[in-house]
Structure formats: structure tokens, C-alpha cells
Specification:
The complex is a heterodimer of chains A (about 290) and B (about 270). Chain A is flat and about 75 Å long. Chain A is mainly α and about 290 residues long. Chain A has helices at about 15-25, 30-60, 70-80, 80-115, 120-135, 135-145, 150-175, 180-185, 190-230, 235-245, 250-275, 280-285. Chain B is α/β, with parallel strands linked by helices and about 270 residues long. Chain B contains eight helices and ten strands. Chain B has a six-stranded mixed beta sheet, with helices on both faces. In chain B, helix 7 packs across helix 8 (about 255-270). The termini of chain B are far apart. Classes of the chains: A mainly alpha (about 290), B alpha/beta (about 270). Chains A and B meet through helix 1, helix 8, helix 9 and helix 12 of A and helix 3 of B.
């Protein structure tokens, strides 16, 4: 839940407001950690219970390990060759990050183009939607034919998958600026570029970051799908190997690793958002902000 | 795209009676679809003297806002022209401050940075205008809020910031499109009187669009009454309500006479008000 805007009516008391904010943000690291623990105790407890329940169920003699390995089994298996996991993770991460960066570089300008011209909107929008409607698995073989077995085809697939949400969110974000604001800027003699950089782009930023968050997780999906189709490295490839060897603990371990990597990437974007966005926009952009009361 | 080039820079008119803003038979037609057109303004002609506060009152959809857009040079009229100080408007021109119903503050800028937006856009020296911005904020009772963000202010305070922003670059003409329409009634009158205080301190020609007859009478020197679509001028009234205006001005007999007169004009035109 985001905080309701604070309304200060009556005698000005801005110092009080500012001071409260400072207390709010300036807590020491240790105290911050304490806060965090207290706030998330319930959540951690639930996860703990689930993990224990899984361990118990997984260890039952009637549940074979190839159907549901217990967390401890998975951990054991994963700990046996961390080197391979790290290597394949790095391959996948590289594909995801490269694909995502390309999607950002292409997605934002595409969104801006679509907003700025009716013609381009009519030209590009159906194309984008059509591209998005194609199951990415269906694209993968074509991309492999074009770009080979190496990482390029996976980067391309990650890029294609991640671009759509970034474009759409850029379009939605750019539409946040009310027409009167554009009139106001024009009446001041502002150029289109000034209106864009001083108003529209910043107003769009929270939405664009929302698009990044969806995009980065989709980039992960794209890259892994690519690795599934044809590759000789990456977590998707390693997953297939584990699958062919009926190595269920490893299979589970890789799946968990994939989701952990996605979560990590997601929060990297969130962190970036915190660093880049001006404070009032930051609050609006994310319901959860560090140090905020629930 | 500014005003049409003129020979010498026109000196501000010395006499208060020479027209400063002239609307010359302004008509505005919008294309709705390929074969449907909407006549929003029909040959509106009127002139406003310098430093005069002119309220434009009319029912919704009568083209009041269009009139402001044309005056600012943001739209091109279908016929007629707007003349400012003897020079026809052919595009957005320097010297306009605008206030809309929405305050349009940029949430990511502090109050002071919001007020300084025109200075930044026009690339004026910030050092010169920062003091002016601060003094404007002081005049509307927002001293001490310079560093606050808009989300920390009430609606009325936000609109006050919007007004300071419209005045910071010292425009000759202030265009206001129902600026207080989203404010509660009590705050609304206070804001109006604040505006009068501001324009007394920094004389401006003001075009003030409203659909509140009372507000028009309380604030203006002159009231232009627009009829229902297509907008045309029903009446123009000199507002002789004594100055300075206060909340007590509302109980003046002249206030009620003017309000009744405007209502009468609407009724004669078939507008229920």
C-alpha cells in the first residue's frame, strides 16, 4: 500500500515534514536489518514451514526421489558440481542481460515513435502485437537457422521476448502527460525536445521501469527457451542434460536456480529504479519500498 | 512562431483604454470526422484593455477554452485573428502565462522548481528569477514550502503554485481556464482574492474563463458573457463593484445586480442557470 499523500494545511511546517523524512531514511544499517526482520518475520516463517513440509514429504519412503526430491537432496546434488552450475548460469545470464539491454535500446525509441506519430502507431503496433502473439518456441528454430547454435540466437530470442512489455509500458507512460501540460509547455515556447525531456520522459519513467521488470523476467524465459531448442551451454541446456539422465535433484536444483536468478535480476532493476527516479515518482512506482511501514 | 514581426518593439500602451488584446471576428471550427464539423466559436469580437481583468463566463461547451487557446496562439482560428498590442498572433508567443483547471504540477519537482519551469524552458537567468519565484510564493502564503513536493500540498495550495508558475516569467497576459473549478467553494473564493492581490502587485492583463457567475463578478473588471455553442458574445458588462474586493463584496448590492444581469442574459439565450 502506498502512503496517502500528506496534506499540510494551515500554518507552514515544512521542517517537521523534512525531519520526519530524514529519520525515515537515515536509520543505521543494523537497525534497518532489525526492522526488516521484524516486518518480514511472518513471511519468513511461512516459507520456513513450507520448506520443512517439503523436506518431510520428499523424504517419505512412498515418494520416490525422481518424483519429488527433498530440499536436502537437491542441495547435496547441487553442491557436488558447483563449477558447472556457475558456468552455465553465467552463459544464461549473459544472454539474458544482453537481450534485455537490446530490448531497452529498441523498446524505448519504438514506444516514443508510436506515441509521436499516428502513422507510425498504425504501422508498428499491429506488427508488434503480431510478433508478441507468436509463441517464442516457434521462433526459436528460425533464429537458430539464422544465428547458429551459439549465444546469438538466445540473445535474439531474449531480446524479442523482452521488447514488447517495454514498448507497451513506454507508450502507456508517455500518455501520462495530460494534453494541457503539453499546451502549457508550448505556450512557454518549449520545443518538442524540451517537452519530451523535461516532462514526458520523466512522467513515463515509472511505467518504463515497470516494463523493464516484466521485460527482464521474460528475457530469462526467452533465453532458456532458446537453449532448450538448440545449444551446447546455458542452464536450459544443462536442464535437458539433467532430464535425460533422470537426475531429478539436479533438475529441481536448476529450476530453483533459474528462478533465483530471475528474482535477482528483477531486484537489480528495482534497485536501479530507486537510484534513478526522483523521490515522489519512486514512491508511486513501487508499492514496496525499503523502510516503509506495511 | 511568435507574434507577426512588427517594426519597432511596441511600447506598452500608455492609456488604459487602448485595446491590448483584440479578438477580431474569431471563428473556430473543429473537424470531428471527415464530414462532420463543429463550430465552437462564431465571430467573437471583443477587446480588452491592458491590465484589465476580463472574466469570460458561459455554459460548458461554449468555446471558452478554445478562446484561450487561440489567444495563446496554440490553435489557429478558422477565421478572424487575435491581435496583441497591435500585432497579430500567428503562433505561440512570448509573454503568456497559463493556468488550467488541473494544476499540472510536475510531481518530481519541488514547489520552487515547479515555479521556475518557465524560466528553465525559456533559458532565462535562474539567479535573477529565483528571488521573484520566492516572493510570488510568499505572496500566496506558501513561504516555507519551497522545498516541498506537490504531493505534500492540498489541492488549493497546488493551484497557488500553478499560479506562481504562470507569473514567474513576468508575462504580459495571464490566461486562466477555470483555474479554481476543482477547489472547494471556501478555498475557491480565497484563491480568487489571492489572485487579485497578486495582479495588484504585478499588474497583468487577465483573461479568466469560468462557469461561475459569482466568481466572474467577484474578480473581474469586465465580464464577457458567452452564449451556448456555437459560442458568441451575448453581453459585455463593466464591473463597477468597488475595489479592493473582499469576501464582503459579495453582500454589496451591485454584486447581486451584476449577477442577476448575467443570469438574465443566459435566460434570454435559453441557457438555464
Amino acid at each position: 500500500m502506498r502512503d496517502a499523500p500528506k496534506v499540510l494545511e494551515g500554518p507552514p511546517a515544512p521542517e517537521a515534514e523534512l525531519r520526519r523524512d530524514r529519520v525515515h531514511r537515515g536509520t543505521g544499517l543494523a537497525r534497518g536489518a532489525g526492522h526488516w526482520l521484524r516486518r518480514n518475520a511472518a513471511v519468513l516463517l511461512v516459507y520456513g514451514f513450507l520448506l520443512i513440509a517439503w523436506e518431510i514429504v520428499g523424504s517419505l519412503p512412498s515418494v520416490p526421489a525422481f518424483i519429488l526430491p527433498s530440499p536436502s537432496e537437491i542441495l547435496h546434488r547441487v553442491a557436488r558440481d558447483p563449477g558447472k552450475l556457475v558456468f552455465h548460469s553465467l552463459v544464461t545470464l549473459q544472454e539474458v542481460v544482453l537481450g534485455f539491454l537490446l530490448a531497452v535500446l529498441a523498446g524505448i525509441p519504438l514506444g516514443v515513435l508510436i506515441v509521436s506519430s499516428r502513422f507510425l502507431e498504425r504501422l508498428l503496433y499491429p506488427l508488434l502485437v503480431a510478433l508478441q502473439a507468436i509463441p517464442k518456441v516457434a521462433l526459436a528454430p528460425i533464429l537458430v537457422i539464422w544465428f547458429g547454435f551459439g549465444p546469438t540466437s538466445k540473445v535474439t530470442l531474449a531480446f524479442v521476448t523482452a521488447t514488447f512489455p517495454i514498448v507497451i509500458n513506454t507508450v502507456v507512460g508517455m500518455a501520462q502527460t495530460p494534453p494541457e501540460m503539453i499546451h502549457l509547455m508550448r505556450s512557454l515556447g518549449a520545443s518538442g525536445l524540451q517537452t519530451f525531456t523535461k516532462v514526458r520522459l520523466i512522467a513515463a519513467a515509472p511505467h518504463v521501469f515497470g516494463g523493464f521488470k516484466i521485460g527482464i523476467t521474460l528475457a530469462m524465459v526467452g533465453a532458456v527457451v532458446g537453449e532448450f531448442i538448440a545449444s551446447n551451454s546455458g542452464l536450459g541446456y544443462f536442464l535437458l542434460i539433467a532430464n535425460n539422465a533422470f537426475d531429478a535433484p539436479l533438475l529441481f536444483g536448476i529450476v530453483i536456480l533459474l528462478s533465483l536468478l530471475s528474482i535477482a535480476l528483477f531486484y537489480v532493476i528495482e534497485l536501479l529504479e530507486m537510484l534513478v527516479l526522483p523521490r515522489p515518482l519512486r514512491r508511486r512506482a513501487s508499492g514496496v519500498r525499503p523502510g516503509a511501514g506495511v | 512562431m511568435k507574434l507577426a514581426p512588427a517594426g519597432p518593439a511596441p511600447a506598452r500602451s500608455a492609456s488604459n483604454r487602448t485595446p491590448f488584446v483584440e479578438l477580431k471576428d474569431l471563428s473556430m471550427e473543429y473537424d470531428l470526422t471527415a464530414d462532420a464539423r463543429l463550430l465552437a466559436l462564431d465571430r467573437v469580437a471583443c477587446s480588452i484593455a491592458e491590465s484589465e481583468f476580463c472574466a469570460i463566463v458561459g455554459p460548458s461547451g461554449c468555446g471558452k477554452s478554445t478562446l484561450l487557446m487561440l489567444t495563446a496562439g496554440l490553435y489557429h482560428p478558422s477565421a478572424g485573428q487575435v491581435v496583441i498590442d497591435g500585432r497579430p498572433v500567428i503562433g505561440p508567443w512570448d509573454g503568456v502565462g497559463m493556468v488550467f483547471q488541473r494544476d499540472l504540477l510536475l510531481e518530481w519537482r519541488t514547489v520552487l522548481e515547479n515555479v521556475l519551469l518557465p524560466v528553465e524552458v525559456k533559458r532565462l537567468p535562474r539567479s535573477e528569477f529565483e528571488g521573484r519565484a520566492r516572493s510570488l510564493l510568499r505572496l500566496v502564503g506558501l513561504a516555507g514550502f519551497e522545498g516541498a513536493y506537490p504531493e505534500q500540498l492540498s489541492i488549493g495550495m497546488r493551484q497557488r503554485v500553478g499560479i506562481c508558475r504562470a507569473l514567474v516569467h513576468d508575462p504580459v497576459l495571464l490566461l486562466m481556464d477555470e483555474p479554481f473549478a476543482s477547489v472547494d467553494l471556501l478555498t475557491r473564493e480565497k484563491l480568487g482574492l489571492d489572485l487579485l492581490r497578486l495582479t495588484a502587485e504585478h499588474p497583468k492583463t487577465v483573461l479568466f474563463v469560468t462557469h461561475s457567475v459569482e466568481e466572474a463578478v467577484l474578480l473581474s473588471d469586465e465580464v464577457v458573457v458567452l452564449g451556448p455553442r456555437p459560442g458568441r458574445i451575448l453581453r459585455r458588462l463593466e464591473n463597477d463593484l468597488p475595489k479592493p474586493r473582499t469576501l464582503a463584496s459579495r453582500s454589496d448590492a451591485r454584486f447581486h445586480r451584476l449577477v442577476d444581469e448575467i443570469r438574465g442574459a443566459f435566460q434570454a439565450a435559453g441557457v438555464l442557470s
